[in-house]
Amino acid sequence: LAAAGHDHGPAFLGLTRLWRRDDEVFAEVTGPTALDAPRHALHPALLTAALQPLLAEAGPAAVPAEWRGAVLHTPGTAALRLHATRTGEDAFALAVTGPDGVPVATVESVRLRRLDGLRPADARPDRFLTLTWPETPLPADPAVSWTVAAPGIPGLAEPGAPDRPDDAEFVLLPVTSASTLLPELLAWLAGDSPARLVIVTRHAVTVAAGDVQDLAPAPVWGLVRAAQSEHPGRITLVDLDGHESSLIALPAALALDEPQVALRQGVAHVPRLVTATPADFPSEPGRSAGTVLVSGSGDLAGAAAEHLVTVLGRDRLLLVGADAELAERLRGLGADVLVAADGAADRESLAEALALLPAEHPLTGVVHVADSDVESVLTSYTPEQFTTGLRRAGDAAWNLHELTLGLDLDLFALLTPHVSGVLGGTGQGARAATGAYLDALAHHRATLGLPGVAVAWGPREEDAGSGRPGLVPAGKGQSAPLFGL
């Protein structure tokens, strides 16, 4: 499955036993230890794991595309037995029971669609996308009702408040950081309120230059984008700018059929991905006698370092938090490599590593690869796990920013191997928050007149199983332009 692109992450590795008999498939599935099954009619981790045998039957690049006659009999089950019977080409009837044989769900037909025709893409210009915030018209006379879950939106008028808070269509929750949001978000998702939760931030996203004034709210957008993927239709994101006209426009923004909205001076903007133009990329740094710091480990950090040496001719590198194998590989390419074992999250060790650079080869570039090792649906990990992972990734990027402020850099690239910070994704909350933070830091540096670019990867052909449903991998050797180098 992983080789075919179906690597869903550790939270979805629930398949424990599997049998096949002619056109029938039998499987047993259990949820992760932290699974809170009663919160869901059918937990997404269990459902994803239960469908994995069908994906294997249908061949590579198959996804569930059509459901008919799905009936839930017993909600809140923590383990499943699946009996799937092939009813046609790439179509199956499902009978799902609990370990005790009690019926959980039946599906008359689930049809899989093969994506075999999608091949790793070439590095054509329309492969590169950037996030924009075009204006969108607001309804003139919105009829919405809301209530505010907590204080923190000064100046918000109350004409939209219902007679009873329980009757509100929207519940507004002002938020300043992702770590404080998560407990409240989990509590909301555990409830059964028909209202939509509206997460309200201030200057968390960059609609125009200079928008991001504080990096703390930025990860909120990544976290909630992942939550929107896991719980569609339950959460809206609204970013304000502090102008009175934006507060006045807030009710109209709630009436939009948009999951994410930014209000600037009373004008609504919505996020859209568009094809990047050359102006969206920084100018290519030239060959330099200086040193480039490469922070992070894994395949992406290795690819970035090799690109610096073999394509850009930046052959003096300081590897921070990388392994010895990468250093030797780079030396084999002719690079002059220094290695600092501790990662960039350790500020003191990072400062010591920078001090080791000789005056004739000063630091002139930074490439930082950040990721989170927390991969699970939101309801399956604790706020402490989330906060620890986000702090580690955020501290490393911020330390690199602060400790290089006085240096003459021509390159500062922040890379993440996932697009979840923009697109969300099931089980991607921590990674999405990290990606959103890196993007905000790049915009912050741009406001200061400093070099900075944040690049989020889609799947790459050379990283089998690292993809995201709906995204076609980039072909081998086609990822280099995505470095922004």
Automatic annotation (TrEMBL):
Domain of life: Bacteria
This protein's UniProt keywords: Transferase
Keyword Phosphoprotein among UniProt keywords: no
Region (Disordered): 460-485
Domain Ketoreductase: 290-460
Cited SMART domains: PKS_KR (SM00822)
GO BP term, example: fatty acid biosynthetic process
GO MF assignments: fatty acid synthase activity
Protein name stated in the entry: KR domain-containing protein
Organism, as annotated: Herbidospora galbida
